[in-house]
Design a protein that fits this description.
3 helices, five-stranded antiparallel β-sheet, flat, 155 residues, alpha+beta
């Protein structure tokens, strides 16, 4: 097998893994539209800054929002704001989330009835562009893998 076919197979496998992740996140986000809610409280809200890989000049920002909530007299702690949370190179995007959920604020927490430890502050798909990008990358990687498979089978 040639190197380019191996790379194509690896891309295809990564595409399948990414597709599985994306579909799972989408289904959870869609299911959250029907989840019950309870009152929660923001414990901590901050921007976490890090550097990207070996290029230390590139900064990456992530909103970290910790909250607590109670379901059936059991307290839970969580930090999931939405199904498609991500880091960004734009500090203002993370700052918007931190401003929306300041420490001490009472919030609605949506939780999965069968597993109350699974929860979110924002139900549904809040970032459709992120979902579309993940889907596009997944399909692209799978396509590369299929081309590699085709080449392998027709040799």
């Amino acid at each position: 097998m040639e190197i380019d076919q191996t790379a194509a197979f690896i891309c295809g496998a990564l595409g399948i893994i990414l597709s599985t992740y994306t579909i799972g996140k989408y289904l959870q986000a869609k299911a959250s539209l029907n989840w019950p809610n309870t009152v929660g409280k923001i414990l901590k809200s901050e921007i976490i800054e890090s550097t990207s890989g070996t290029r230390s000049s590139r900064r990456i920002y992530k909103a970290n929002v910790d909250y607590t909530y109670c379901v059936n007299d059991v307290f839970y702690d969580n930090n999931v704001v939405s199904a498609f949370q991500y880091s960004t190179s734009i500090r203002n995007q993370a700052a918007q989330v931190v401003r929306r959920y300041p420490a001490g604020k009472e919030v609605e927490v949506y939780y999965k009835p069968a597993k109350p430890e699974v929860a979110t502050l924002e139900k549904g798909v809040q970032r459709p562009l992120g979902l579309a990008l993940l889907a596009f990358v997944s399909v692209s990687l799978i396509s590369i893998g299929l081309v590699g498979l085709y080449r392998f089978l027709t040799v």
